[in-house]
Amino acid sequence: MLRLRSCCRRSAEVLLPPAAAQQRKRLSTGPQQKHRSFYEFRTYSIRPDQNAAFLKLTNEKIHLRTAHSELIGYWSVEYGGLNKVFHIWKYDSYSQRAGVRAALSQDPSWISEYISKAIPMLVSQDNEVNYLVPWSHLHEPPKEGGVYELASFQMRPGGPAVWGDRFQAAVTSHDAPGYGKLVGAFHSECGLLNKVHALWWFESADQRAEVRHKSHTDARVVAAVRNCVAHLDSQENKLMFPCSFSPLK
């Protein structure tokens, strides 16, 4: 049956006029992921009365977790959500992540010294699998400190073949002298689909506010954002401060 469907599909493609075939190709393809590495975004909501205790425990015991896989960054959310932490973990493949999870479940130190104490402090946990978009690389900020912004955009269905170029233009228009520093741009693989994220670094929350005002009068930025917003359903952001044990500071 699969072979028959495949043959029918190829026959239909042959019958398409060249213009229609080209349009179908444009709508069904886009920039492809060139490697298997992915980034797991995790957001934990903490009981308000346990926020300080959770961060202290994590600071003391995070080495038990990083012994198993690579931590990219760990932040405490300051604006856009209270009593939350956000962290990014890198994996080379899904099988590597599965191996890490299996090893953690058998690690007595991790379970007794951290998990058994941390879980009662949490209200909820959420995760999402993301890839770096093909044109983005992970960058370190110019210096330590400052504030990070995670800007998240829910794009309309269609994928990067439809809105990828405009999203890239909108993001890179802000990644210029006098603006913020783009740490990385990501697109979702597991979680809400057609979702993209831009992780930014600013010297301070005040500098970010100044940049926002500046962008509203920058014709180059305004034009790029207007071209992209036609494909946008919703957006949200959070401002975060890196924890002392975060590799990205």
Task: Please supply descriptive tags for the structure shown above.
disordered N terminus, 41% helix, Alpha-Beta Plaits, 249 residues, 31% strand
Cα(first) to Cα(last) distance is 55 Å
Helix-strand string: HHEHEEHHEEHEEHHE
Average pLDDT works out at: 88
Structural class per helix/strand content? alpha+beta
Q: What order do the strands of the largest sheet run in, or round the barrel if closed?
A: 1-3-2-8-5-7-6-4
CATH topology of the largest domain: Alpha-Beta Plaits
User: Ranges with pLDDT <50 over ≥5 residues?
Assistant: 1-16, 20-29
Helix content: 40-55%
- What's the total number of strands? 8
Tell the overall outline. globular
Please give the domain count: 2
Taking the sheet with the most strands, its summary is: 8 strands, antiparallel, barrel
The CATH architecture of the largest domain can be given as 2-Layer Sandwich
Total of helices: 8
Strand content: 25-35%
Radius of gyration from the CA trace?
Answer: 21 Å
| CATH C-level name of the largest domain | Alpha Beta
Write the layout of secondary structure elements.
Elements: H1 2-15, H2 18-28, E1 38-46, H3 51-66, E2 70-79, E3 84-91, H4 94-105, H5 108-118, E4 122-132, E5 147-155, H6 160-174, E6 181-190, E7 195-202, H7 205-215, H8 219-229, E8 232-242
Antiparallel strand pairs: 1-3, 1-4, 2-3, 2-8, 4-6, 5-7, 5-8, 6-7
